[in-house]
Amino acid sequence: MVSIRNDLNAMCPECGALVTLDALQQRECVKCGKKAFDREVCENGHFVCDECRRRAASKAIYETCIKSDSKNPIDLALSVMKDKTIRMHDLKHHTLVASCLITAYKNSGGDIDLDAALRDADKRGAWFPGGICGLAGTCGAAASTGIFYSIITKTTPHSEATWSDTNMIVADTLTKIASINGPRCCKRNTFISILNATDYTEKKLGIKMEVPEKIECLFSNRNDECIKEKCPFYKG
Ligand SMILES: [Zn+2]
Ligand SMILES: [Zn+2]
Fold this sequence. Notes:
Blueprint: E1 19-28, E2 35-42, H1 50-67, H2 73-81, H3 93-107, H4 114-125, H5 132-136, H6 140-153, H7 163-180, H8 186-205
Antiparallel strand pairs: 1-2
Helix pairs in contact: 1-3, 1-4, 2-3, 2-8, 3-4, 3-6, 3-8, 4-6, 6-7, 6-8, 7-8
Bound molecules: zinc ion (2 copies).
């Protein structure tokens, strides 16, 4: 049985305080009232169940994107990743990469129904479980560039014109992610995925999104596995 280390350095989705590990005991979710055996509790005593945390994260991603007029998917991703509902390593990156790209694409002149596209990205992002990078060799942030490209080009398994490009954007992104090596970092892989997807979209569809000249990671101190100088975004 493969175990994935629980990621702390997380914020409480209810109040933003640090979440810590306490004794395993029955706890009541402050959002839905459901009871579960868990060790995670915030410094203010809140326990939030996984389902409520994921729902809150989906809501934070949707609300940031739907209100935004930004053409810059990296800026958008940074504001979402700073939200208290998103953990350092979190399967919600599988939704947020596509959502930030879709929003910046729309704001850069792409012709899509943003509300429907964001809801679709949330649904498809949930297909990829946490840890899939190391467990199946497919980083979920890279897969999320495929979700983005599929949604904006309306690609399906039956498509011909855009089927190849939808797979190629993921292959391209994965190659870039893999060539840096692990361990996992949802932030590093989000930046690489978005940068690659913006290049690819400009090349294939002629829509140019904005990206910052330099990306400096704000999350290294929350990541016990940070590869530091080996990461192109490490601030030092
Ligand atoms: Zn709390
Ligand atoms: Zn709950």
